[in-house]
Automatic annotation (TrEMBL):
Span of domain Glucose-methanol-choline oxidoreductase C-terminal: 642-774
Gene3D superfamilies, A to Z: Cellobiose dehydrogenase, cytochrome domain (2.60.40.1210), Cholesterol Oxidase, domain 2 (3.30.410.10), FAD/NAD(P)-binding domain (3.50.50.60)
Protein name: GMC oxidoreductase
Signal peptide region: 1-22
Stretches assigned to the Cellobiose dehydrogenase-like cytochrome domain: 26-204
Ranges for region Disordered: 208-234, 785-806
GO molecular function annotations of the record: flavin adenine dinucleotide binding; oxidoreductase activity, acting on CH-OH group of donors
Low complexity bias locations: 214-227
Pfam families from the UniProt entry: CDH-cyt (PF16010), GMC_oxred_C (PF05199), GMC_oxred_N (PF00732)
Family to which the UniProt record says this protein belongs: Belongs to the GMC oxidoreductase family.
InterPro entries: Cellobiose_DH-like_cyt, FAD/NAD-bd_sf, GMC_Oxidoreductase_CD, GMC_OxRdtase_N, GMC_OxRtase_C
Record's keyword terms, sorted: Signal
Ranges for domain Glucose-methanol-choline oxidoreductase N-terminal: 328-549
Length: 806
């Protein structure tokens, strides 16, 4: 599901609209500089926050500088304020400022993912024009040069002021930074849309050169944050790790996530040798995981086991989130299936029939579905005492749905009833703990002698000669392996590294659009070792990107009350922790943040296409709502959406969303508007429900239009589609990357089995479908060929091998 958007959450979501009233043209009284300015209210961040900018009168030259204004919150002269020049946190130039005595300090930093940022090594330069520090705030006016284009060791990006709107991100923290180590911002974060046309001014260079009315100091061009950043001379890094054991395998599966675990298990049932390679560390306690809050010390449980701790990923993802992509994804054993909210739905038949090609229709995939749901049936009462906890939100909304004629269903038993229906949430928990593919398929695989799991080992690329893979090259990790691991003759490689990870592996293996492969070729890391251009396979990898379009609405009702799962992490509800530890019951056996009901409807577009909507409610406010009685009801547009985006790679070999797949067609937009109106009509049935977002004086059309169409603002974290399955081979101008056996076109033995092969989106959260696809794909792959048998290598003992504690 989409990330939590409560004040401590990291998903940058704030309606452009909700903040639009706080935008104005404004003249700074001290300097006379005229800014376009955004004010963020104190309800969003204690002490408030202001950011403004002025641009040169004409967009000439490199067009990559501005004069900025920051008014940061700093109670007791403590606090930092950050600005993202790209909107989101990852892959953008970030400017951080804070008071120090009467001075204001600044530094530029950069993060390739949701990780602690590093000092920025590009050439952005900040020149202070004026500053003031009071007991509560600091104010800084600065000239920022080379700030709309950035480059961190080859990871380049830009957001030039050439469009109607620039998306700017902000975050605040209540303390000043210590050295170069950053702690997660704790005083709000969000985004707003800035308007370049309003910021342009012919007097720009006069101001930039210190010609304002009363600058407090003569401007001096001092790059901020201490010593001038020197652009790093990036050199290829060498693999850090132990030499890989010798030996070879019939099947090598890369990535132990929702797709990789089941496909590896099912392949190993055949008796052939299977190696599953995962770049991340163990997650659940039974596999040797150790990450946990203090109250779990002395138990076999980790943060991943406990349903109520799932949302901690949004405030503390170090060592868990992938560091080489610009979206949130789990790079641990289990991938998304270890970190997600575990929503688990029996698939809707229409999703297969509408999206998938022959051999993958509902009737074809029924046997796999039955196998999956026999192993992982899902439960709507995850607490072991069979009770549901804190159901006020469900009760209020279901009263409204029911009064409006929506029908309550039991989703586990009525999967196809998805039009004007609602249900309790269903989760892949069992016995009060996370299970899913980890607790089933991985357990059975690890019992087989012909199966091996290597953790903490990144795969760099598929080693191939022409269309034939001979093995995979490893990239090490914390205790992991380096070197090459070989396939037996007749063996196959299965990429299950997720939509971002498999796209990256294909690019690094010389498979994808020429423009992307050229970036890899020109990269310092892979340039000299990338497979020769004569062997590149030109396929539309990275295209056809899709995600559920998320549009948040917010209602409140006095019966509803927020339960702070983040405080539960800190052990602030000892009776709930105790209850959970005693017998896996209570609210902590349910996913944060109190999810449900989940509702569905289908909306027919003027193009004749039926579009599927899922509504996911949770007891948690979203900006601008802050009330403890608020509920966010997220609208996901799925099956039938006709918008598509793209993933690209940059010179630092990070994968990013280069084109967001949201609401590019009028019919997609209309479907979201219609469904929100349907929700409003239902909620109006209960007089005590107050619709907060969209606000009563705003039309639904205006509201939906006002939200940025960026990943940071609209993602649901349900990325699919970049290695599409289909019969129209991309080699001959079609849109598909893999054939009906999941084999990459133009290859003999390279497969992709994960979310990236989905041709289009589905109605519900995707994990159950991905597991089903993997189970089905394994049968097809096994039917393809008869690998020769082999001699699986013996891993050297250590934490990377599948150390299992059942
Ligand atoms: C925070 C969050 C909440 C979510 N909530 C839900 C939910 O409640 N219900 C639901 O159905 N879906 C949810 N999703 C989506 C769901 O988890 C994903 O769609 C699903 O996990 C994708 O499966 P996958 O197999 O394609 O990739 P993943 O599950 O991401 O697995 C990919 C694996 O490959 C590994 N890998 C990547 N690159 C390499 C490499 N080079 N070498 C070795 N290993 C590599 C990764 O570490 C990872 O373990 C959520 C997602 C997120 C991020």
């Amino acid at each position: 599901m989409k990330g939590s958007t409560f004040a401590r959450a990291a998903s940058l979501l704030s309606p452009l609209f909700s903040l639009a009233q706080a935008q104005e043209k404004w003249t700074h009284p001290g300097t006379g500089i005229e800014f376009w300015k955004q004010t963020v209210d104190t309800s969003q961040t204690s002490g408030g926050f202001e950011w403004g900018y002025a641009l040169p009168g004409e967009p000439t030259g490199s067009n990559d500088e501005y004069i900025g204004y920051i008014k940061g919150s700093a109670a007791g002269k403590k606090g930092w304020s950050g600005v993202s020049h790209g909107g989101g946190m990852p892959n953008a130039l970030l400017l951080v400022s804070w008071p120090e005595g009467d001075a204001v300090k600044t530094t530029f930093v950069y993060a390739g993912g949701y990780v602690n940022p590093d000092p920025y090594t590009g050439n952005a330069t900040l020149t202070q024009i004026s500053h003031t520090v009071t007991d509560d705030h600091f104010e800084l006016i600065y000239r920022c040069q080379w700030c709309w284009i950035w480059d961190q060791g080859g990871a380049d990006g830009s957001q030039l002021p050439t469009n109607e709107v620039q998306v700017i991100g902000w975050a605040q923290h209540k303390d000043v930074p210590s050295g170069t180590s950053w702690t997660f911002h704790n005083n709000g974060q969000s985004q707003f849309g800035a308007q370049p046309a309003q910021a342009r001014n012919a007097k720009y260079f006069e101001w930039a050169n210190g010609g304002g009315t009363t600058p407090t100091a003569t401007p001096t061009a001092t790059p901020s944050g201490g010593p001038t950043p020197t652009p790093s001379q990036a050199v290829p890094t060498t693999c850090v790790g132990k030499p890989a054991p010798t030996g070879s395998f019939d099947y090598i599966v890369v990535g132990a996530g929702a797709g990789g675990i089941p496909v590896a298990d099912r392949l190993s049932e055949s008796g052939k040798s299977v190696l599953l390679i995962e770049r991340g560390p163990p997650s659940l306690g039974r596999f040797g995981g150790t990450m946990k809050p203090a109250w779990l010390n002395g138990t076999d449980l980790t943060r991943f086991d406990v349903p109520g701790l799932c949302n901690q990923i949004w405030v503390d993802s170090a060592g868990i989130a992938c560091t080489d992509i610009d979206q949130m994804a789990g790079c641990v054993l289990g991938g998304g299936a270890a970190v997600n909210a575990a929503l688990w739905w029996r698939p809707v038949e229409k999703d297969w029939d509408y999206n998938f090609p022959a051999g993958w229709k509902a009737a074809d995939i029924k046997a796999a579905t039955d196998r999956v749901f026999k192993r992982i049936p899902g439960t709507d009462t995850p607490s072991t005492d069979g009770k549901r906890y804190k159901q006020e939100g469900f009760n209020v909304l279901s009263t409204a749905f029911s009064a409006a004629g929506w029908k309550q269903v039991k989703a586990t038993e009525q999967p196809n009833e998805k039009n004007f229906t609602y249900s309790h949430s269903v989760f892949m928990y069992e016995k009060g703990q996370r299970q899913g593919p980890l607790g089933t398929y991985l357990v059975s695989a690890l019992e087989r002698k012909n199966f091996q799991l290597w953790q903490n080992t990144k795969v760099r690329r598929v080693v191939r000669s022409g269309g034939k893979a001979t093995g995979v090259e490893l990239d090490g990790g914390d205790g992991g392996y380096c070197g090459t691991v070989k396939l037996n003759d007749g063996g196959r490689v299965i990429l299950s590294a997720g939509t971002f990870g498999s796209t990256k592996l294909l690019f690094r293996s010389g498979i994808g659009p020429k423009a992307q492969l050229n970036i890899v070729k020109n990269s310092i890391q892979d340039g000299s070792t990338l497979i020769n251009e004569t062997q590149w396979i030109d396929l539309p990898v990275g295209l056809n990107l899709n995600d559920h379009v998320n549009t948040d609405t917010v209602v409140r009702h006095p019966n509803v009350s927020f339960y702070d799962f983040y405080k539960a992490w800190d052990g602030e509800y000892p009776s709930d922790s105790k209850q959970y530890l005693a017998d896996r019951s209570g609210i902590l056996a349910q996913s944060a943040p109190n999810i449900g009901p989940v509702a569905w409807e289908d909306v027919k577009g003027s193009d004749g296409i039926e579009r599927a909507i899922q509504w996911t409610a949770r007891v948690e406010p979203s900006p601008p709502a802050t009330d403890n009685t608020s509920m966010t009801i997220s609208n996901y547009l799925g099956r039938g959406s006709t918008s598509r985006g793209a993933l690209s790679i940059n010179g630092a070999l990070n994968i990013f969303v280069s084109k967001a797949p949201y609401l590019q067609t009028q019919e997609d937009f209309d479907a979201v508007v219609t469904s929100i109106k349907n929700l409003q009509a239902a909620m109006a049935k209960v007089p005590g429900i107050v619709f907060e977002v969209p606000a009563p004086n705003v039309t639904v059309e205006a509201y939906v239009k006002s939200l940025p169409l960026t990943a940071a603002a609209r993602r649901a974290n349900h990325w699919i589609g970049t290695a599409k399955i289909g019969t129209d081979s991309g080699l001959t101008g079609g849109s598909s990357v893999v054939d009906l056996n999941t084999q990459v076109y133009g290859t003999e033995n390279i497969h992709v089995v994960d979310a990236s092969i989905f041709p289009g989106h589905i109605q519900t959260n995707p994990t159950s479908y991905i597991v089903t696809v993997a189970d089905h794909a394994a049968a097809k792959i096994l039917a393809l060929g008869k690998p020769s048998g082999g001699t699986p290598g013996t891993p050297t003992p250590g934490k990377q091998a599948g150390a299992v504690r059942n």
